[in-house]
Write a structure and sequence with these properties.
- By secondary structure, the protein is α/β, with parallel strands linked by helices.
- It has one domain: Metal-dependent hydrolases (TIM Barrel).
- It has 11 helices and 9 strands.
- The strands form 2 sheets. Strands 1, 2, 3, 4, 5 and 6 form a 6-stranded parallel beta sheet that branches. A 3-stranded parallel beta sheet has the order 7-8-9.
- Bound molecules: zinc ion.
- The site of zinc ion has 4 residues, from loops.
Amino acid sequence: MCFFDLHCDTIQCLLDGSSLADANTQVSLDKARAFGRWAQVYAMFVGDNPPGRDTAYDTYRQLYACFQKQMAVYAERICQCRSAAQVRAAFEAGKYAAILSVENGSVLGGRLERLAELRRDGVRLLTLTWMGENELGSGGEAGGPLKPFGRAVLEALPSYGIIPDISHLSDEGLSDVFSHYDGPVVATHSNVRRVMGHHRNLTEKQTAEIIRRRGLIGINLCSGFLSCERSAASREDVCRHLSAFLEMGAEDTVCFGTDFDGAKTPADIRDLADIPALWEYLLKRGFSETLLRKVFFENAWAFWERNF
Ligand SMILES: [Zn+2]
């Protein structure tokens, strides 16, 4: 099987001395052995800036340096890809594909010109906010509209070839994105609010708009966003969220954004090595192989070919 994951926080673990092949991280090269092809979006998570400070950017530079060191160590097994052509070339060379995103627009520190640096570094997705408020707008926890700087960022992103990721953004902020930005948007790690009522999950209207724009939605495996009873979350909850997305017409939009190494996941989906068992489980629950191929890989891959 092939797997395309829109979100993991594994780079954070590299700061503590882990490697990309570490046995203790949820995502590791060794745990990907069952995949014929594997593309992994590695997020660089940076916190919100305290008032008047620019700490997110420093964190970004640290994470990026760690990531590049690991890319050099494991160059024979994985390489960083900036375009769909580079992803294809990696697969043809028998390697895995690593793609970079930044989780939190706070990385810009209110400076539009930093987008050029992100672009140079090969960042392809930018999560506009995290839970709280930043220079662009507010996450679902803080709540609030997009700010003028957020609108300026959205306007600039297409010229840098970076696509906005709206996971974490407040409902108000997302409405503003939809009215100020025309292009495709991605929700890298968000589930269905009707199935689990949390602001991190998407409403039917939001889902419909992402589908209309030919974007992507990655099902988040974080127990807390799969089920109200987080300690009892399981593969069955993934089944419920997938079914709901399909009912809303997301057959060509839905994929996975595991949130591995950034969230507690169900006991029956411990890490990347449990993904093939998740496929088998969903197959037994009645989803066709054609559909599962789309969800586990092809939808995200088609998006990459269209946009990068
Ligand atoms: Zn997140």
